[in-house]
Amino acid sequence: MSATTQLPAAPTPPSASSPAEAPRPPQRLRRGALRSERPGVRFAAWATVVVCGGFGLLPVYWLLATSLTPRDQVFAYPPKFFPSAPTLDAFAALASNDQLFGYLRNSVIVSVITAVLSVLVSAYMGYSFSKFRYRGRRSLMYLVLASQMFPQALLLVTLYSVFSAYNLLNTYTALVLSFTTFTLPLCVWMLKGFFDTIPDELVEAARVDGASRLRIIHSIVLPLAAPGLIAAGLFAFVRGWNDFVFALTLAGPEKQTLPPGLVNTFIGEASTAWPELMAASLVVSLPVAIAFIALQKYLVGGLTAGAVKG
Amino acid sequence: MSLTLPQSAVSRRRVLQLLGIGAGTAALAACAPSAPSSTGAAASAAAAGGAKTDFAFSSWSFTEEAAAPALEAIVKAYQDANDVTIKDVSFPYNEYINQLTLQVKGGQFTGAAHVDVAWLGSLAAMGKLQDLSALTEGRGYTDAALAAAQFDGVQYGLPWTIGAIGLVGNSEILQKAGIDPDAFPATIDEFEKALKDLKGLGGGMIPYAASTKAAQLKDILIWMETFGSPLVDGDTVTIGDDASVEAVTWYKSLYDQKLIAADVDRFDARSLFAQGRAAIYDDAPVGRNAVQEESPDKDLGSKLVPLSRPVLKAGETPRALVWGGAIAVVDGEGAATAADFAQFATSDLDTVLADYEVRGLPPVTTEAQQSDVVAADTFGSLFNERITATSTSNPFWKFTAYSQIETVVAEQVQAVLVGKTDAKAAMQKAGEAAQKLVG
Q1: Which residue of A has its CA nearest to B14?
Q2: Chain B, nearest residue to A202 by Cα
Q3: Touching check for B49 and chain A: CB below 8 Å?
Q4: What is the pTM of this model?
Q5: B-chain residues within 8 Å CB-CB of A249?
Q6: For B297, nearest residue in chain A (alpha carbons)
Q7: Do A162 and B274 touch (CB under 8 A)?
Q8: CA distance B39 to B355
Q9: What are the residue boundaries of the structural domains of chain B, listed by start?
Q10: If you ran DSSP here, which 8-state letter would residue B108 be given?
Q11: Per-residue b or e along B158-178, where b marks 16 or more CB atoms closer than 10 Å to that residue's CB
Q12: Chain A contacts in chain B segment 7-26 (CB below 8 A)
């Protein structure tokens, strides 16, 4: 039984002769609701946009507002939507904290390497699961997923022991390997789904033309799977960027990344420097946010392509 | 059509080889070397004054804005005087004990470790802490401080900053409600009436920002003791007895009357108190700086007043929970010098007083406590007199599973507060669960 699937057929463009029967793209429908001549529909559409937008953006605004608020007013009651005496002190404190730049550097190094390694390994694994048929393939696929079924704390202790035995603690290697342990399963399954959508006939045609197996992968399949590779890479990058517990436990003070570094710096035994913590969180979120905005079309395409059955 | 991978590429033998490598890795990890058990030899060597070596010192305060300068000064003073290098290690307070345990167990950490006195039992159970009793002779540590840093009769830590967790009030708000902070209600009944008077001030005032979140509901234990429950008798958990049920029933009645608020933990309580929205809360001396920093009232420091916890019947001794930090020494490389450092940091008068000026935490030697700097601190002196003087350790700390025990009790108390169950059934359940953890 073949597990491969066909590429979804491209949507047929609406016929000029029968506009009423032509299916409208979903985006047109949404825009239509917002501009509808029926006030009820328009109101409901805008209300939905405002509520959903507010749900997503209010925490970000609160992050910004807190970062601009003096520490003694952070918990003022009643809460103030706009800081009454905005200050950039928290950002100034960040700029003068050299340690934070060290954490930032470590985060970038570890996240980028994790992303590259995850994409590299999962691309070949995903291709193998998608395009080859061999005994134990299904078992291996589920074995890959098995690591996701253990509590992370359990794996943390195991990984700590392994890295300790091989003198890998307090190294970038320990962080990258541990992060990759968690990113690989999803990346492999994501890319397998993506490769499933690439027709086998394309691969067969390349073979008939004399292309080697590696040539087929590198020159034909991977370029076609670029959105999937980018989505997998972004997922792995964000996983490495956001991790707290593994980075805290395995990295040591010199290789500490931003999440444990920020907690260590701003959250104390008795108090938390909220404005500084919020300012730091805002600043360190920017690279990820920019990466998402720049690559969102690939990300959406990559995440959904594998889910479509032809 | 699907492609077929040649059988030889991923053979059954190859799969077995890979699995073998995985199993071997796990076996190697299991055979990771462990550190030697505690002998006290390093402490004896330190007491005898051997050659100094480099060592590591871990503390959660190294990266804390307010406390770091004090620690850095102590480390620098010792390094300069002894020509050694101290490697500082830091983890966030909330993660500290887990991280330290992992590092000590894995043999990654040896040297001096700043510990909460509540953790000594768990750390001692690993068998890697030094007995530091040889270093306590002639240094002027108070008996109470030494006792706080002992576990099972062994001096596993040198006390550094020992105080207690007790009630702290805002004198201005108390006086507005007609309550004299220096003649604070002595009994539970009088205390409850005072809380009602505070509630009467209006403006959303929370009379007592007691802990009501599960994460901090272990605070209920001191009230159970106030009501007469011993909590533990030998190795038998007594939670579920009449006194513990009465304590929880009373706590629930405060909750229902809105004399205490929902969803409050220590951090919330500090914020509410700092904003002038709560009149009384529970805290250790370490909270003093935090509430002042968070408060728009620049004069809050002068309004802070330590209050003796009310008792069930007049004449009984007020209860308070020991709180504090100690320096323990983990066996291994540099342990002898680390022990000498621990003694220096905790009992050298100039060092301790310089530390006090930055952190404001209660010192542990008689000489330091009687110094002008410490005596001139009204809040500190009153705290010592009204709260620390009668403080006792949490009887659960002697069990390695004390944290889980506190959690199961807290969960049941929270179930009572939200009305899911009654106090008697909940405490019986909590007692049984705690007993299982005790073994």
Answers
A1: A136
A2: B1
A3: no
A4: 0.81
A5: 99, 102
A6: A72
A7: no
A8: 31
A9: 41-162+323-388, 165-321+395-438
A10: -
A11: bbbbbbbbbbbbbbbbbeebe
A12: 7, 9-10, 12, 15, 25-26
Q: Could you identify the residue written with the tokens 């033998």?
A: B13
**Which residues of chain A are within 8 Å of residue B10 when distances are taken between CB atoms?**
134, 136
E strands along B214-340, which residues?
Answer: 232-233, 236-237, 278-283, 304-307, 320-330
Q: Residue B116 pairs with which residues in a beta bridge?
A: B325
Tell me the backbone φ, ψ of residue B363, rounded to 5 degrees: -75, 170
Distance CA A265, CA A277 (A): 8
Q: Do the beta carbons of residue B196 and residue B257 sit within 8 Å?
A: yes
Nearest residue to B159 (alpha-carbon basis) of B173, B141, B171, B137: B141
| Separation between Cα atoms, residue B367 and residue A214, nearest integer Å | 78
Reported as a single tens digit per residue, the pLDDT across B283-335 is 999 999 999 999 999 999 999 999 999 999 999 999 999 999 999 999 998 99
| Distance in angstroms (rounded) separating the CA atoms of residues A280 and A292 | 19
Region A262-271: mean pLDDT is 90
Topology alike, domains B41-162+323-388 and B165-321+395-438: yes
Task: Give the count of beta carbons closer than 10 Å to the beta carbon of residue A61.
Answer: 12
The interface pTM score, or ipTM, of the predicted complex is 0.78
pLDDT(A13) > 50? no
Tell me how close the Cα of B264 comes to any Cα of chain A, in angstroms.
14
Tokens representing residue B1 in the block = 């059509």
Q: Would the pLDDT of A8 be above 50?
A: no
Q: Please count the other Cβ atoms lying within 10 Å of the Cβ belonging to residue B238.
A: 20
Residue of chain A nearest B300, judged by CA positions: A72
Q: What is the token pair recorded at A134?
A: 């061999």
Residue at B330: amino acid letter:
V
**Residues of A whose CB is below 8 A from B92:** 248, 260, 263-264, 267
Spell out the domain ranges in chain A: 26-88, 92-305
Q: How far away is chain A from the Cα of B134, in angstroms, using its nearest Cα?
A: 30
Q: Is B6 helix (H, G, I), strand (E, B) or coil?
A: coil
Contacts of A269 in chain B (CB under 8 A): 60-61, 64, 67, 93, 286
Backbone angles phi, psi at B64, to 5 degrees: -85, 130
Q: In the 8-state DSSP scheme, what is residue B307? A: E
Residue of A nearest to B94 (CA): A269
User: Does residue B72 carry a pLDDT above 50?
Assistant: yes
Beta strands (DSSP E) in A123-278 are: 132-133
CA-nearest residue of chain B to A72?
B294
Q: What CATH number does the domain located at B41-162+323-388 have?
A: 3.40.190.10
Task: Summarize pLDDT for B149-158 with one digit per residue, the tens.
Answer: 999 999 999 9
Q: Between A2, A136, A169, which is nearest B2 by CB? A: A2
- Measured between beta carbons, the chain B residues lying within 8 angstroms of A158 are 26, 29
Query: Of the candidates B274, B244, B277, which has an alpha carbon nearest to the alpha carbon of residue B260?
Result: B277
Q: How many CA atoms lie within 13 A of B80 on its CB side?
A: 6
Other beta carbons within 10 angstroms of residue A212's beta carbon come to: 11
- Looking at the domain that runs over B165-321+395-438, which CATH code has it been given? 3.40.190.10
Q: What is the CATH number of domain A92-305?
A: 1.10.3720.10
Query: Which residues in chain B are closer than 8 Å to A161, comparing Cβ atoms?
Result: 29-30, 32, 106
Chain B residues lying within 8 Å of A136, measured CB to CB: 10, 12, 15
* Tens digits of residue pLDDT in A94-130: 988 888 999 999 999 999 999 999 999 999 999 999 9
Inter-chain CB proximity B10 and A158 less than 8 Å: no
State the nearest Cα–Cα gap between A137 and chain B, in angstroms: 10
